[in-house]
Amino acid sequence: LQLVESGGGLVQPGGSLRLSCVASGSTLDDYTVGWFRQAPGKEREGVSCIDSSDGTTYSADSVKGRFTISRGNSKDSVYLQMNNLKPEDTAVYYCAAHFRAAAENMCLISSMNLLDYWGQGTQVTVSS
C-alpha cells in the first residue's frame, strides 16, 4: 500500500484547503486513516482520523469545528477539508493508514512509527 498526499499550499488566514490522500496497491477499506501534522521544531501530532469499520471520526481539539475528515466513494481516498485556517495550522501534513484501528487510538498514538503506512507529506502554509 502506498499513500500520496496532495492539496497543500499557501493560504491566507481564514481561508480553506482540501487535502487528499490517495492509496495505490490496495483499497483503504480495512484501514483506519489519519491525518497528522508536524510543524518546525514540534513533534508530529494527530489531527483527524476516520475508522475503517463504521466511519467514526476523531479530531484534535485544536481543529474541531474547522477540519473535517471523510472517505471518498472510490474506497481508495480520504480527504481533509480545512476551513478557517490559522497561522498555527502551518505544518507538513501526512496521511497514515493502520489496519482496523480505532480512530481515536490512532490519532493519539504515542509511537507513530508503529503505524502501518505513511505518505510523504504535503506542506500547508497559512500566512498573510
Structural features, described:
The longest helix has 5 residues, at 103-107. This protein starts with a strand and ends with a strand. The model has no long low-confidence stretch (mean pLDDT 95). The protein has one helix and eleven strands. With 128 residues, the chain is mainly beta. The strands form two sheets. Strands 2, 4, 5, 6, 9, 10 and 11 form a seven-stranded mixed sheet that branches. Strands 1-3-8-7 form a four-stranded antiparallel sheet, with no helix packed on it. It has one helix at 103-107, and strands at residues 2-6, 9-11, 17-24, 31-38, 45-50, 57-59, 67-71, 77-82, 91-99, 117-118, 122-126.
Order of helices and strands: EEEEEEEEEHEE
**Strand count, sense and closure of the main sheet?**
7 strands, mixed
What class do helices, strands and sheet pairing give?
Answer: mainly beta
How many runs of DSSP E, i.e. beta strands?
A: 11
Q: Please count the helical segments.
A: 1
Taking all Cα atoms into account, the compactness measure Rg is 13 Å
Describe the global form.
globular
Distance between the termini: 37 Å
Strand content: over 45%
Low-confidence stretches: none
Arithmetic mean of pLDDT = 95
Estimate percent helicity.
under 10%
